[in-house]
Design a protein that fits this description.
By secondary structure, this protein is α/β, with parallel strands linked by helices. It has two domains: 216 residues, Rossmann fold, CATH 3.40.50.450; 147 residues, 3-Layer(aba) Sandwich (Rossmann fold). 32% of the residues lie in helices and 17% in strands. The strands form three sheets. The protein has a seven-stranded mixed sheet, with helices on both faces. A four-stranded parallel sheet has the order 7-8-6-9, with helices on both faces. Helix 1 packs antiparallel against helix 3 and helix 1 packs across helix 11. It is elongated.
Length: 409
C-alpha cells in the first residue's frame, strides 16, 4: 500500500515536523511502500502533482533538518473544495489520482478550512464505496481549532511573540520621553496569540500593560482613556492587540489601513489595526508613538521555536498514520491536556466535522473586567507550550533550512 500527505493553509514552525512524524512512522510500517507528498495541498491531488518523499528525504539528517525548518516543504494552498453536488468532476480527479498511485491513506495537515476538506473527501469516499482513509492533522498558529487543547504551531508562534514583545519592552525603556508602542499580533477572530504575551509576567515583566483581543469589547474612546491611565504609571506603555479586534462605528478610518480584500473562504485580509491606533494616539495624546506589525515572522521564526511544540507536532503526525492504519477515516487528531504540572497531553481523535469551519475563542473568564488585559489564570495554560529549545542546525552563523527540490518549485 501507499500513503499520501499534504499541507494546507498558513505556514507554521511545526507543520513540517508533523510531516516528518508521518514519514518516520511510515518507514516503521512494513506494509507501506511509497509515501507521496501532494504539491500545494489538495491542488496537487486534483492535478496529479505528487512526489515520492523517499526521493527527497533520504537520511536521518534530512528528517532532523526538515523537522526544524519552518513553512511547508510541500507548498500550501487556500483552495475551498466545492460540494460534490456542485462539481463532482473535482472529486473524480482526486479519486483518480489516489487510485492511480495505489494510495490507501491520505493525511491532510491543516486548520479549520482544511478539516472541511477532510469531511467532504471522506464522505465522498464512502459515497463511492472506496476504502481510502482520510485523516486530518491539526495545525495553526491561531490556536482556534475546537476540541483540541492547542494546535501544533501555536507554541512556537507564542514563544516568538512573547520574546519579541520582551525585546520591544527593553528597546522602548531607554528614552526619557513618554512613549506608546502598539504591537499588532495575528488573530482573526480569536485572540490566543496576543493573549499569550501575558506569559512575560511569569518572568517579572509588567508589560504588555494593555492587551486587546477580538473577544473583548473595544472602543476608541475607552482605548485612549486606558492609554492615559497607563501613561500616568509608566514612562513607556506597551500595548498588544490582535489584528482582528472588532471596531465599532465610532472607529471610522480603519478602512484606510486595510485592503478590504477577502480570500476564497470569505476571510478578510486584516492587518492595519496597529497603524490605526498609532494615528489615534498621535492625534488624541500627541506623545511619541509607534506601531509594530509582527506579520509573517510570527509563524516562521524557527530560530526560537518551542521544543514542546516541535516534539508534539511530530507525535501527532505519527499517531495520525497509526489511527488511519487502524481503519479510521473522516477524523482529526487532537491533544487532550491531562495536567499543567507536570505538563502532559494525550493524543486522541474526533470527527473532523466537530472542527471544520468552526473556531475556538479565547475564554472570556481569562479577560479582565476592564476588557483590556489577560488575567494570571491564563498563564498556566500558555507556559507549558513554549518550553524547551531545539538545537538548530547552523552554518556561517545562520540557521540551515531544508530546501524544496527544484521539481517541487
Amino acid at each position: 500500500m501507499n500513503i499520501a500527505v499534504a499541507q494546507s493553509g498558513g505556514p507554521t514552525c511545526a507543520i513540517n515536523a508533523s510531516l516528518v512524524g508521518v514519514f518516520r512512522q511510515a518507514l516503521l510500517t512494513e506494509e507501506i511502500d511509497a509515501v507521496f507528498g501532494s504539491i500545494n495541498g489538495i491542488e496537487g491531488m486534483i492535478g496529479d502533482e505528487l512526489i515520492n518523499l523517499k526521493t527527497i528525504i533520504r537520511t536521518n539528517r534530512d528528517m532532523e533538518l526538515l523537522r526544524q525548518t519552518p513553512s511547508t516543504v510541500l507548498g500550501s494552498c487556500r483552495y475551498k473544495l466545492p460540494s460534490y453536488e456542485e462539481e463532482p468532476e473535482v472529486y473524480e480527479k482526486i479519486h483518480s489520482t489516489l487510485k492511480a498511485h495505489r494510495i490507501s491513506i491520505f493525511l491532510y495537515i491543516g486548520g479549520n478550512d482544511s478539516m472541511d476538506t477532510v469531511v467532504k473527501l471522506s464522505a465522498y469516499m464512502k459515497h463511492v464505496g472506496s476504502d481510502i482513509k482520510i485523516v486530518g492533522i491539526p495545525k495553526t498558529i491561531d490556536n482556534d481549532l475546537p476540541i483540541t487543547d492547542h494546535t501544533p504551531g501555536f507554541g512556537s508562534a507564542a514563544k516568538y511573540v512573547a520574546a519579541t514583545t520582551q525585546e520591544i519592552i527593553r528597546d522602548s525603556s531607554v528614552y526619557s520621553i513618554p512613549s506608546v508602542t502598539i504591537i499588532e499580533i495575528m488573530g482573526r477572530h480569536s485572540g490566543w496569540l496576543a493573549a499569550s504575551t501575558c506569559v512575560l509576567r511569569a518572568n517579572g515583566e509588567e508589560a504588555p500593560h494593555l492587551i486587546y483581543l477580538p473577544e473583548s469589547d473595544f472602543s476608541a474612546e475607552q482605548f485612549i482613556e486606558d492609554i492615559r491611565k497607563e501613561m500616568a504609571k509608566h514612562k513607556a506603555v506597551i500595548v498588544a492587540v490582535s489584528e482582528g479586534v472588532a471596531l465599532n462605528a465610532e472607529n471610522a478610518g480603519i478602512e484606510d489601513f486595510q485592503s478590504g480584500a477577502t480570500d476564497v473562504f470569505g476571510h478578510k485580509y486584516l492587518s492595519g489595526i496597529g497603524k490605526f491606533l498609532e494615528n489615534l494616539v498621535a492625534k488624541e495624546i500627541g506623545c511619541k508613538v509607534r506601531s509594530v506589525e509582527l506579520n509573517v515572522m510570527q509563524r516562521c521564526s524557527s530560530h526560537i521555536c518551542s521544543k514542546t511544540d516541535i516534539d508534539e507536532a511530530e507525535r501527532i503526525g505519527r499517531q495520525a498514520l497509526c489511527t488511519a492504519l487502524d481503519g479510521n477515516t473522516g477524523i482529526m487528531m487532537y491533544f487532550r491536556r491531562v495536567s499543567d504540572v507536570p505538563y502532559a497531553v494525550s493524543i486522541e481523535m474526533t470527527e473532523a466535522s466537530n472542527t471544520a469551519n468552526l473556531e475556538k475563542r479565547f475564554p472570556v473568564e481569562w479577560i479582565s473586567q476592564e476588557q483590556n488585559q489577560v488575567t494570571d489564570a491564563a498563564i498556566p495554560y500558555f507556559l507549558p507550550l513554549i518550553q524547551g529549545e531545539v538545537d538548530i542546525f547552523m552554518n556561517n552563523g545562520m540557521p540551515v533550512h531544508f530546501q524544496r527540490p527544484l521539481q517541487m518549485r
